[in-house]
Design brief:
It comes from Amycolatopsis melonis. This protein is an all-alpha fold and about 60 residues long. About 80% of the residues lie in helices and about 0% in strands.
């Protein structure tokens, strides 16, 4: 693939959407099941990172 110019852009966009969705889902599950501990903060941080990732990935399309 290096000889043809690298990876396809469509593949990168799909990966970004899946990665952002996974971060968002995992963050919300962690925050829900570990109520009021430092894991809750970590869960909300993961959810925020996933939402940001999805927003940026959607903007690039």
């Amino acid at each position: 693939m290096a000889a043809t110019g690298g990876f396809s852009r469509a593949g990168n966009e799909d990966t970004a959407s899946v990665g952002g969705g996974v971060l968002l889902a995992v963050g919300l599950v962690v925050a829900f099941f570990t109520w009021w501990s430092w894991w809750t903060v970590a869960g909300f941080a993961l959810a925020a990172a996933g939402a940001l990732w999805l927003t940026v990935a959607g903007r690039d399309e």
